[in-house]
Amino acid sequence: MVKNGIDRILSYSHLFQGKRIGLITTPTGITSEFISTIQILHDNFKLTALFSPEHGVRGDQAAGAMVETYTDPLTGVPVYSLYRQDSKRMTADMLDKVDMVVYDIQDVGVRYYTFIYTMLYALEDCAKAGKELVVLDRVNPLDGLTVEGNVLKPGYESFIGNYPLSVRYGLTAGEVANMVNEQKGWNAKLHVIPCEGWERNMLFPQTGQIWVHPSLGIPRFETALVYAGTCLFEGTNLSEGRGTTFPFEIIGAPFIDAERLADEMNHRGLPGVRFRPVYFKPTTSKFQGELCAGVQIYVTDPLSYRSVETGVTLMYTMKRNYEEFSYLPPVKEGSRPFIDLLCGDKLYREEVGLMEMLEKFREESRDFAREKQRYHLYG
User: Fold this and answer.
1) Residue 66, pLDDT score
2) CA of 321: how far to CAs of 316, 324, 325, 336, 339, in Å?
């Protein structure tokens, strides 16, 4: 079985001895024996602070809910919020309480997912404060080779995309940290404790690890696999399946003709995927309590499946066939529409043809794939 960085931490004890340690983590921060990283650091080293990203260090906060400062009831260690209304950054007061910050969260390998920016913000803040940052690396569940989608453009930065990564970037969190640290010239005191036994062509089921959902919206590996494409629907007036047992795997709305849509998508012959007509009533989020129709996405071959191209094709098919389709307005006055932040560009709202757009995405992803190889830690 593949080992993550936390499984190897005691071999790197010299990094932690005698230092006040702050930990950024979530419920995915566990060893292969299901012992939490919080407990490992608390029992073996000097854990003086916990830093909470979205959802909280114990996973008890809802998506998007602001996290307050509190005391962890199991360890008595203070928990400081990195998901506040006014900032997602570490403050000088927080950093004064530690000599080193440790990061251990399972990433999903997709640019929209916020935990990677929690890590990179912390890396920049530690660099400025002269503090060390240690990444306990974890596998990329979507493999370390497949790269998809466009690269985020300047002026479209947000907490769902803050660095010029492709949508599906084929790097581990530790590799992303190394790449951004060098490219931004932060010169942070960065250490990556690498995985053992992971190969770049491995998808998560091949690692022998047990899936622990990194957030409520990603309950299964299959969800993570489609998420790179279907998260785009969060920027539209269609349901992305939140409030169902298959978030991001079910897409629809009350005005969709399920059979027609499934038939059209299946006739496109997209690799590694089939579509089934489906009806559902979300219990939360868009169309709560309303009967929706749409499609459920079934990945039949994870190796050939291309999540971004599938999601974009599905969105454009619905946009073309239904005049009720629309992109959501900006969340607040003066900000960009959410679909632009997801895209990292304004392409989806421009009258660009589907095939032209996909070819542009392929070109950008090929360039990114070549660039990222310099930062590979694993063969």
Assistant:
1) 67
2) 9, 9, 8, 25, 19
Long-range contacts of 351-356 (CB under 8 A, 24+ apart): 354/312, 354/313, 354/316
**Residue 56: which pLDDT band, with cuts at 50, 70 and 90?**
confident
Among 83, 61, 62, 58, which Cα is nearest to 73's? 58
Pick the closest to residue 172 from 106, 127, 232, 238 (CA basis). Answer: 106
Burial of 57 (C-beta count, 10 Å sphere; 0-12/13-18/19+): buried
Give the strand pairing for 78-81 and 100-104: unpaired
For residue 86, pLDDT beyond 90: no
Q: Which tokens in the block code for residue 210?
A: 């047990």
pLDDT in tens, 341-367: 999 999 999 888 999 999 999 999 999
Question: What pTM, to 2 d.p., does this model score?
Answer: 0.96
Q: Which of 178, 20, 180, 29 is nearest to 105 (CA)?
A: 29
d(CA 80, CA 326): 38
The structure tokens 């299901």 sit at 34
